[in-house]
């Protein structure tokens, strides 16, 4: 019991020490650090949202996916393409005269869902290094403006200490931008592939609408025949 309490106390102390160290790091970076921290949280929230949203829903080729869904066989209906397949088949089997405009309207919502947070992530990745550089330039100006106050530098580590503190904001800006750019571009490529498949699905449904409606009619006849036999 005492050992568990000591472990818990050690974890609490280490967490408090980590929080204090982070607070000192943010404070030493100057006035640009709070916006960079907020931008980091928003950026990674957007990246996480896009990671969860940009899911295909299954590994089936589109033609097989549509064929299984039309026949009533087991076909994934989750993910962006899964929902698009089932929504598109429903429209193809309906009595609308021109299918393509209805598919375009139906898939616009899916396309908007794909693009959500993309602009915000891209903007933060672009702005973060510049914000860090602004903090560094401001810190360097303050450092060189205070060259005459040797007492200040003797307490804070001299000119090297002042320059070191000024460079923290640039370090923070790059630490935000580099991983955000890498993950963001990977998600952008995934979005491009999904948009291309969505366009391919739209063409596939329009080209095979007759067969889809015919399959629906055959399925309805089979159900009616089974009910009569019963």
**Mind summarizing the main beta sheet?**
none
Number of helices: 9
What average pLDDT do the residues reach? 81
List the secondary-structure elements in sequence, H or E.
HHHHHHHHH
Number of individual domains = 1
Alpha-carbon Rg, integer: 29 Å
**Uncertain residue ranges:** 220-230
- The general outline is elongated
Strand content: under 5%
Distance between the termini: 69 Å
Helix content: over 70%
Quantity of strands, as a count: 0
Describe the structure.
With 230 residues, this protein is mostly helical. The chain has one domain. Helices cover 85% and strands 0% of the residues. It contains nine helices and no strands. Helix 6 runs antiparallel to helix 8. The longest helix has 50 residues. The radius of gyration is 29 Å and the shape is elongated.
Summary tags:
230 residues; mainly alpha; 9 helices; elongated
Topology:
Blueprint: H1 2-28, H2 33-53, H3 62-71, H4 79-92, H5 99-115, H6 118-145, H7 150-156, H8 158-207, H9 209-229
Q: How would you sum up this structure in a few lines?
A:
This protein has helices at 2-28, 33-53, 62-71, 79-92, 99-115, 118-145, 150-156, 158-207, 209-229.
């Amino acid at each position: 019991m005492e050992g568990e309490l000591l472990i818990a106390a050690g974890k609490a102390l280490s967490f408090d020490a980590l929080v204090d160290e982070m607070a000192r790091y943010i404070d030493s970076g100057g006035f640009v650090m709070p916006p960079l921290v907020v931008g980091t949280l928003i950026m990674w929230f957007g990246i996480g949202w896009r990671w969860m949203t940009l899911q295909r829903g299954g590994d089936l080729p589109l033609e097989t996916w549509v064929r299984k869904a039309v026949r009533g066989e087991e076909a994934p209906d989750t993910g962006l393409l899964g929902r698009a397949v089932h929504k598109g088949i429903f429209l193809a089997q309906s009595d609308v005269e021109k299918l393509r405009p209805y598919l375009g309207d139906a898939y616009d919502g899916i396309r908007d869902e794909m693009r959500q947070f993309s602009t915000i992530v891209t903007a933060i990745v672009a702005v973060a290094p510049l914000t860090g550089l602004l903090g560094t330039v401001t810190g360097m100006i303050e450092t060189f403006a205070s060259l005459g106050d040797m007492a200040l530098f003797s307490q804070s580590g001299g000119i090297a200490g002042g320059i070191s503190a000024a460079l923290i904001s640039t370090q923070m800006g790059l630490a935000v931008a580099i991983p955000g750019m890498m993950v963001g571009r990977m998600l952008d490529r995934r979005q491009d592939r999904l948009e291309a498949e969505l366009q391919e699905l739209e063409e596939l449904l329009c080209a095979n609408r007759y067969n889809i409606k015919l399959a629906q009619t055959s399925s309805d006849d089979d159900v009616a025949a089974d009910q009569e036999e019963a």
